[in-house]
Amino acid sequence: MRLLLIAFQFLTIIPLPFAVRCDKEDLGRSTAFFPAVGFVIGGVLLAADVLISPWLARPLSDALLITLLTLITGALHLDGLADVCDGLAARGSRERFLAIMKDSQVGAIGAVGLVLGLLLKWQALVAVPLELKWLALLLFPALARFGQVLTLTGASHARQDGLGAAFVAGSGKITLLLAFTTVATVGYYLLQFKGIIALAAVCVLTISGRMFFQHKLGGLTGDTIGCLSELNEILVLIVIAAMPQ
Q1: For residue 69, how many C-alpha atoms fall within 13 Å in the half-sphere facing its CB?
Q2: How does pLDDT run across 128-181, given as a tens digit for each residue?
Q3: Residue 69 in contact with residue 38, Cβ under 8 Å?
Q4: With contact defined as beta carbons under 8 Å apart, do 194 and 171 qualify?
């Protein structure tokens, strides 16, 4: 339970009414519960959709859901998407790429990437068939957070400091197996083979992205993990929208 609460505290800004002890190695171990937190986030989105969708046109209600998702997560992974876009645009050395990602300021290319990412996520959600929308809302945050676990497990880290290094150091095959079992089981229960196809798509994108960043930077950072998480959210919604009914 303590590891679940640590995962919840890291992935959301929802305050807990009590303090939770967290040792450095607990960060990596808590990743086993990342998909579970994703399902909680999806449940919040679903509850909000039930409340607002009868009163608003779907494009507007879906835009509000994407806004709520951003608020719940504190835009944590969107920051990673923007920083990676700025780093890629620099076209410099590994050190320059890492320095740009560490800079707290967002450049022009990062802002463009941020806008395009939010726009794609919104439109992908709008494109999901109405009868599948509640299933998609539950599933896509969880699959993206499984992607984070897959990104971390067995990876090298580009910096010796930072949260990315702490998560990489504490994660392992057991946490990956638990996270995979969670999303595979619930994904199949919700969407049958469509859920498994979406999970497979997340695995392909995550492994490809991880290989790219390890080649480019010699390892991962928190920003690269967040960037892949944002791309996976978009991907899952696109896959669910594109699959034949």
Answers
A1: 30
A2: 999 999 999 999 999 999 998 888 887 666 555 555 566 665 566 788 888 889
A3: no
A4: no
Q: Which domain holds residue 39?
A: 2-242
Identify residue 164 by its one-letter amino acid code: G
| Domains contained in the chain, number | 1
Decide if 220 contacts 213 (C-beta within 8 A): yes
Q: Closest Cα to residue 194, out of 105, 104, 131?
A: 131
Give dist(CA 129, CA 114) in Å, integer.
Answer: 25
Buried b (16+ CB within 10 A) or exposed e, 172-209: eeebbebbbebbbebbeebbeebbebbbebbbebbeeb
In angstroms, rounded to a whole number, what is the distance separating the alpha carbons of residues 150 and 173?
A: 9
